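Why do we care about 3D structure at all? Because function follows from shape, and shape follows, mostly, from sequence. That is the central idea of this module. The next example makes it concrete: a single protein chain, its amino acid sequence, and then its structure expressed as tokens.
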Amino acid sequence: MLVRLPVAAATSVAVFLRRRITTTACLLSTKSSMTSDSSGGSAAAFTTIKEIVSLEKEIKKSKFIAIAGPISSEQSAQLFLSQVRDPRASHNCWAYKVGDQHRSSDDGEPSGTAGKPMLSAICSSGLDRVMVVVIRYFGGIKLGTGGLVRAYGGVTSDCLKTAPTRLFKSKVQMGVEVTFDLLGVVYNQLQSCQAEDIKEDYDTGKDGTTMVSFKVDFDQVDKLEDAIKSNCKRDLVFFKNQTS
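And the structure:
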């Protein structure tokens, strides 16, 4: 849905966009956020914002509306932009960061006065997988180069500060082959490290043996492996594959 904001109705955008939009395809879901970004990199851990937030400021009669949202790729960034931009506004400037990939646009403002300071504000926030669109309605007074840089960078920074955040950690797929008598010990350790998607495969070709597979946060791998080996008192072999 394209959000159209005539100048007279612009003040309502903050209320509208503060609603949590859980069905929008460009929102960063738990599954999509853990995949590698389009630049080919995969972050072990990163912090992003939970939902779409907005902030409005009036600077020398110009209205600036910053809208920030979580994204997972360049494609979701373009979708987010298409849904929140207002073609009736003077400018729809934007910036986003997804891992090592980042882009920005001045959208008609003097070069380097909008997109670049917006991107700088995103990078300074420490957030990733996030996009900010700043909609400007010109009020008749020119701000000058320095004024524009401060306005776009400032409203972006202030908007991100209002956003609730969450930490994502990549998961490592693991597996270990154990005898039936060790299953209780293994499960206790899996629970203590909050392992997920725990499965058992009895088709190992060995009597009384099963393959236990599971996913665990990347920073819990060594701790979990050491704990299972120590409590089982066996030199077990673990299989690992970072899948997300």
